[in-house]
Amino acid sequence: MRAAVVRTFGGPEVVEVADAAVPEPGPRQVRIKVSAGALNPVDAAVRAGFFGGAGKALGLGWDAAGTVDAVGAPAAWQVGDPVVALVPGVDVPLGGHAEYVVVDAGAVARAPESVDAVHAGTLPLNGLTAIQALDLLDLAPGSTLLVTGAAGAVGGFAVQLAARRGIEVVGHARAGDEELVRSLGAARFTADGVEPGGVDAVLDAAVLGERALEWVRDGGVYIGVRPGEHPGAVRGVRTGSVAVQADGARLAELVRLVDEGALTLRVAETYALEDAAEAHARLAEGGLRGRLVLVP
């Protein structure tokens, strides 16, 4: 089979699509024949060597949408089931950007019925990051939450999920994104931030760090999206960051919201798997409103 890998660190040009053995599922694992998977900033970080792993081939791709191709007993899934899954790992030989991928059965959810595989392939990583970050924030209905990067993939999901919980969302993004962010459910919009201490909490999807922390009231909460890279606690503000975990049950909740029309899946462009390096170059250009998706 073909899979996107890096053998040395660098820019988009180091991404190669190589031949690899088709992986076999072990106990309580499933093999997915991949139909589509989003390209995310974490893939660029792996490619650049941010997580280490020098001296060996590293697989790329954290998202997979496709069909179950084989199961390792015992497993609740059957061959032919349409599924989505998070493919976690920054130091693995094969990721989701491949023709086949093996994941734990507990990481899998039935695919949405209302969208195609290309759109479904944008859900697992960003959706789980958003909902797990909101779990860490643990805000009561009526609380004010500022979401930075509210027009992006994680930020957009966070806006929709938080608004659904009865939280008053302030969306932070570029001025030209106001209409989009409000359409996702933000009660207020800002391109410049708010007054110091102006909100109960911040979900910092844009990784603004200390600047975003200043917007949280004394005793509030700040959650970032890069594990371990959040600012230290000040003024009684609880700070932390989300380290996304594979969770098929939680992913199934997100799928249900997609099928109810409560979560919006956005695709910017699609690329053939063979053009993975080109897709990485497009990601590096920035300015995307929606995910790039690789199609094997």
Summarize the structure.
The chain is built from 8 helices and 16 strands. With 296 residues, the chain is an alpha/beta fold. The protein has 2 domains: 2-123 and 265-295, Alpha-Beta Complex (Quinone Oxidoreductase, Chain A, domain 1), CATH 3.90.180; 126-241, Rossmann fold, CATH 3.40.50.
Describe this structure in words.
The protein is α/β, with parallel strands linked by helices and 296 residues long. The chain has 2 domains: 153 residues, Medium-chain alcohol dehydrogenases, catalytic domain (Quinone Oxidoreductase, Chain A, domain 1, Alpha-Beta Complex); 116 residues, NAD(P)-binding Rossmann-like Domain (Rossmann fold), CATH 3.40.50.720. The longest helix has 14 residues. The model has no long low-confidence stretch (mean pLDDT 96).
Strand content: 25-35%
| End-to-end distance | 10 Å
Sequence of secondary-structure elements: EEEHEEEEEHHEHEHEEHEEHEHE
- What CATH architecture of the largest domain would you give? Alpha-Beta Complex
Task: Give the overall form.
Answer: globular
**Gyration radius over CA:** 19 Å
**Helix coverage percent of residues?**
10-25%
Mean pLDDT: 96
Tally of individual domains: 2
SSE topology:
Layout (H helix, E strand, L loop, with lengths): L1 E5 L8 E5 L9 E11 L1 H8 L9 E2 L3 E9 L10 E5 L13 E5 L3 E3 L6 H4 L3 H14 L6 E5 L4 H12 L3 E5 L5 H6 L4 E3 L8 E6 L5 H4 L2 E9 L13 E4 L6 H12 L7 E6 L3 H10 L5 E5 L1
Parallel strand pairs: 9-10, 9-12, 10-11, 12-13, 13-14, 15-16
Antiparallel strand pairs: 1-2, 1-4, 3-5, 3-7, 3-16, 5-6, 6-8
Helix pairs in contact: 3-4
